[in-house]
Amino acid sequence: xxxxxxxxxxxxxxxxxxxxxxxxxxxxxxxxxxxxxxxxxxxxxxxxxxxxxxxxxxxxxxxxxxxxxxxxxxxxxxxxxxxxxxxxxxxxxxxxxxxxxxxxxxxxxxxxxxxxxxxxxxxxxxxxxxxxxxxxxxxxxxxxxxxxxxxxxxxxxxxxxxxxxxxxxxxxxxxxxxxxxxxxxxxxxxxxxxxxxxxxxxxxxxxxxxxxxxxxxxxxxxx
Length: 223
Fold this sequence. Notes:
CATH class of the largest domain: Mainly Beta
Number of helices: 4
Distance between the termini: 15 Å
CATH architecture of the largest domain: Sandwich
Shape: globular
């Protein structure tokens, strides 16, 4: 009986651990809004941030493995028309809000931050309803020199959280190596949707029963 309890406990613990394993795919937002945009739509269209227009290597939203894709160092072109978004000249901050289309469990943001203006700091907030947002952290993007021919993504990871909306608060624009007197600028933004990062309640319950069984079996053995 003791050996059966131990074996069962091992299986249940293995299932719980497997349910918590990291498996993420890259997801593009279905829509986006900006607090302000450059008056010329060629450079001020926020949809440019989610159209993959400037990426040398594309991805299939909801299918392509996030880690594998980013490990390939996909580059973003510095050519702006149809591929980047900017605020008006002189803006030092901006807010971008992305709608993922449905509530997903997300754990990372991949941001290709423009080399021409950029953003010195990005705060990341999430929401399930688009009204109440909670911070999951902030990061300092790479400050690309304006002389680069293309630029990579910065990946910011955080504790897996349920969200349909992701808000990026950009500040300290432009970056030190960017054009003086500019504003905020971004190339592309995508997200990592994970499966099994947060154990399901049923899995947690099974794990608890398994541990309880192990404890009982050990007490009986000791007696």
